Amino acid sequence: MAMKIKNISGSGIFNLYRSKHYQFVPKHEPCNPDSVSLLQEFFNKYSEVFVLTGAGVSTESGLPDYRSKDVGLYDRSPNRPVLYKDFVSKIEVRKRYWARNFAGWKLFSSTQPNEVHKFLSLWEQKESLHWLVTQNVDRLHHKAGSQNVTELHGTSYLVKCLSCSNLFSRNLFQVILRELNPDFNVESTEIAPDADVHLNPELTKSFNVPDCEKCGGILKPDVVFFGENVPKEKVFELYEKVEKSDAVLVLGSSLEVVYSGYRFVLMASELKKCIGIINIGPTRADKLATFKITARCGDILPKIKL
Ligand SMILES: [Zn+2]
């Protein structure tokens, strides 16, 4: 039986995106064929590409970002990420942070890589991707199989002692927190970019947070908090990667964060390298770009032949 194929308008597709995994993807139009051709040319030409990914890549896995209009955390909630200085100086802030992170962990850690993560992993296997840097702390590139990855802002999947640098798995910490808080039965259905979900403050006051078992130091997720700097060695290593690459591709980032990857795009610009940007919204580096494609990364990248 012949099927009648209905023309799907831009807004129809948009409605499709709004459902399920796409609830945190900002409003956008489908990418046009010219953009696909342009991007294909880029992929044909460059073979040592430095790629930088941001929250816009993870929104397609069902994780919200902070800044996007309407769908970002800042637009939907009065909550703001905890500041480094508050975390290290106030026990009540650490109790609140870990209680919320504990409640949000199951959902956060169950997120899966999407088409973009899978594409980048495949690209790495084809040996044309020089290095992948992500501003995300969700481990989704690793889950997709990428190996040459630097997590610019660290990862939520590790816990670190601020005194002795003892480092261990966040999943193990979940077991420890459960043992110390047997009566804390709150599991969040909300999801946040770093698992920091909102809970009633009364609930978090009595949450038990352990110190480092080796030295008694403060335990913190191995994530660069707001008000904290990316380690210098990491930045210098990445400057070298930019130098050795022949082009830079920015995916799903507005590059607005203070300690963001903007500096690498700036360096690439000074070195006169080709800079491509794919993002739904404007970015801080649009003026530096050789080309800018306004699109959802997961809409355009799977159309590229590697
Ligand atoms: Zn320690």
TrEMBL record:
<feature type="binding site">
    <location>
        <position position="212"/>
    </location>
    <ligand>
        <name>Zn(2+)</name>
    </ligand>
</feature>
<feature type="binding site">
    <location>
        <position position="215"/>
    </location>
    <ligand>
        <name>Zn(2+)</name>
    </ligand>
</feature>
<dbReference type="InterPro" id="IPR026591">
    <property type="entry name" value="Sirtuin_cat_small_dom_sf"/>
</dbReference>
<dbReference type="GO" id="GO:0005759">
    <property type="term" value="C:mitochondrial matrix"/>
</dbReference>
<dbReference type="GO" id="GO:0070403">
    <property type="term" value="F:NAD+ binding"/>
</dbReference>
<dbReference type="InterPro" id="IPR003000">
    <property type="entry name" value="Sirtuin"/>
</dbReference>
<dbReference type="GO" id="GO:0017136">
    <property type="term" value="F:histone deacetylase activity, NAD-dependent"/>
</dbReference>
<keyword id="KW-0520">NAD</keyword>
<keyword id="KW-0479">Metal-binding</keyword>
<dbReference type="Pfam" id="PF02146">
    <property type="entry name" value="SIR2"/>
</dbReference>
<feature type="active site" description="Proton acceptor">
    <location>
        <position position="153"/>
    </location>
</feature>
<dbReference type="InterPro" id="IPR026590">
    <property type="entry name" value="Ssirtuin_cat_dom"/>
</dbReference>
<protein>
    <recommendedName>
        <fullName>Deacetylase sirtuin-type domain-containing protein</fullName>
    </recommendedName>
</protein>
<dbReference type="GO" id="GO:0046872">
    <property type="term" value="F:metal ion binding"/>
</dbReference>
<dbReference type="InterPro" id="IPR029035">
    <property type="entry name" value="DHS-like_NAD/FAD-binding_dom"/>
</dbReference>
<keyword id="KW-0808">Transferase</keyword>
<feature type="domain" description="Deacetylase sirtuin-type">
    <location>
        <begin position="29"/>
        <end position="306"/>
    </location>
</feature>
<keyword id="KW-0862">Zinc</keyword>
<feature type="binding site">
    <location>
        <position position="161"/>
    </location>
    <ligand>
        <name>Zn(2+)</name>
    </ligand>
</feature>
<feature type="binding site">
    <location>
        <position position="164"/>
    </location>
    <ligand>
        <name>Zn(2+)</name>
    </ligand>
</feature>
<dbReference type="InterPro" id="IPR050134">
    <property type="entry name" value="NAD-dep_sirtuin_deacylases"/>
</dbReference>
